[in-house]
Amino acid sequence: MYADNKIRRSTINDIIKLKNVRPVVSLTAYTAPMAASLDPYADFLLVGDSLAMVLYGMESTIGVSLDTMIEHTKAVMRGAQKAMVILDMPFGSFEQSKEQAFANASRVLRETGCAAVKLEGGIDMAETIEFLVKRNIPVMAHIGLRPQAVHVMGGYKTQGKNKKERAQMIEDALAIQKAGAFAVVLEGTEESLAVEITKKLDIITIGIGASAECDGQILVAEDMLGYFPKNAKFVKRYAEVGEIIDSAAKAYADDVKARKFPAIEHTYGIKPKS
Ligand code: KIV
């Protein structure tokens, strides 16, 4: 299932070249088996800090540590062979100074072997992005609805609804591009603004609740699979994995209670009758 040295992993250049060619396909992954399942179909896999909520049941993404993100990224690197892997810098790991961001992002690349980091922020993070890129750390930025800013934004609110928000987001996008980011996630953004930004930028825009006209799309895999209870309007559920697990767990419990499991074929020292 894991690591075949003959398979070439995508690089940021492969992703960059997709602008105006075809939409970039990306999903989140937090574990080796999920990464192995998604790998054939994704250009890149993001180890998103959304794992705080999806895997650990936290209220927001604020509580996840860099150590946790690193361990999950190592797992995803073991599971995925061809997709580029990006680690999402968690809250508190890059905002203090560009030096703090470099210390933590370089640790990420060294310890996990992943190819790039994502960080939330626009013009406020431009200096940090430039500092990282000049020191060989590829950066994908994240603007619009920024989950790590939930407390200052006063909730998870769609962005670009008025002139001021639109102007700010365009300014953010241009600053990020100038700083050297290779891509930018546009989350929870009015369609017309996402289209305008995508047209203005030479770098790749990745939409999540933005527009089908972005240069690519990302979804949280568990949302897309129907394995997370709360879904935003922008989520399309392509499966109902929660229901599959529920019926399997019920069937197992019924079998155990009825002493139907384990059966002879699952038991050591007893030969099934031929
Ligand atoms: O944390 C995350 O999963 C993300 C993506 C959904 C963009 O930031």
Number of domains: 1
Helix/strand order, N-terminal first: HEHEHHEHEHEHHEHEEHH
Structural class: alpha/beta
Shape: globular
What is the tally of helical segments?
11
- In CATH, the architecture is Alpha-Beta Barrel
CATH class descriptor: Alpha Beta
Q: What is the mean predicted local confidence, pLDDT?
A: 95
CATH superfamily: Phosphoenolpyruvate-binding domains
Ligands bound to this protein structure:
3-methyl-2-oxobutanoic acid
Rg value: 21 Å
- Give me the count of strands: 8
The major pleated sheet works out as: 8 strands, parallel, barrel
Poorly predicted runs? none
Quote the CATH topology.
TIM Barrel
**How helical, in percent, are the residues?**
25-40%
Biggest sheet strand order reads: 1-2-3-4-5-6-7-8
**End-to-end span in angstroms?**
33 Å
Which percent range describes the beta-strand content? Answer: 5-15%
What does this structure look like?
By secondary structure, the protein is α/β, with parallel strands linked by helices. The protein has a single domain, classed as TIM Barrel. 39% of the residues lie in helices and 14% in strands. The protein has 11 helices and 8 strands. The protein has helices at residues 12-16, 32-38, 51-54, 66-79, 98-112, 126-134, 150-153, 163-179, 191-200, 221-224, 241-257, and strands at 24-28, 44-47, 84-88, 116-120, 139-144, 183-187, 204-208, 216-219. Strands 1-2-3-4-5-6-7-8 form an 8-stranded parallel β-barrel, surrounded by 5 helices. The radius of gyration is 21 Å and the shape is globular. The model has no long low-confidence stretch (mean pLDDT 95). Bound molecules: 3-methyl-2-oxobutanoic acid (KIV).
